[in-house]
Amino acid sequence: MYSLHSWLRYAVFAIGLAALGYALWGQLGGRDYRKRMWDLASAFTFSIYFQVIIGFFLIFETTNRFFDKTLGLHMVLSMAAGAIAQLTYSVNRRRPREERRYTVHIWGVGLALALVVAGILAIRSSVFS
Ligand code: HEM
Q: Would you say the C-alpha torsion 106, 100, 43, 22 has a positive or negative sign?
């Protein structure tokens, strides 16, 4: 479970950067809102939720874990990332198709990615360690 949680960070990064890149490409190119943006944003949200579920398994699976402030911060920042990603995705979902905007995802995915990185840096010296 530990190594799955550890390696899944790269899936969160990869999908998040793909969603952010696509939103910037769409916005800066003045392109119409496309379903692919939708799919990338929902995949990113799902990847964070999956990490959160694994994270809770990790907490309860490892009984001798010393629960310190840094782990608490890791959890709170990661779950805030999930909430932001979900919120911005839902905001666009409620809009009629012609009113959907890439900017919502630029802010939502961008902020969620920053929170994920901050969450990892709360417990590790780098996002890759
Ligand atoms: C976006 C969501 C998350 C990401 C990307 C993420 C990523 C990581 C990474 C990269 C590590 C370090 C693994 C290593 O050293 O190899 C880690 C450790 C850990 N994570 Fe998460 N995590 C997330 C959410 C959560 C949540 C929500 C929880 C708890 C509910 C959690 C619980 C843990 C625990 C218990 C550890 C081990 C800490 C330690 O041994 O010091 N994670 N996580």
A: negative
**For residues 11 and 66, what is the distance between their CA atoms, to the nearest angstrom?**
27
In a domain, 129, yes or no: no
Cα of 120 to ligand 1 centre, how many Å?
A: 7
Query: 58 with 2: CB under 8 angstroms?
Result: yes
Q: Which domain holds residue 34?
A: 2-123
pLDDT in tens, 22-38: 999 999 999 999 999 99
Q: Compute how many other C-beta atoms are within 10 angstroms of the C-beta atom of residue 101.
A: 16
Query: Ligand 1: which of 58, 76, 127 to mutate, most ligand atoms within 8 Å of CB?
Result: 58
Instruction: Give this prediction's pTM.
Output: 0.90
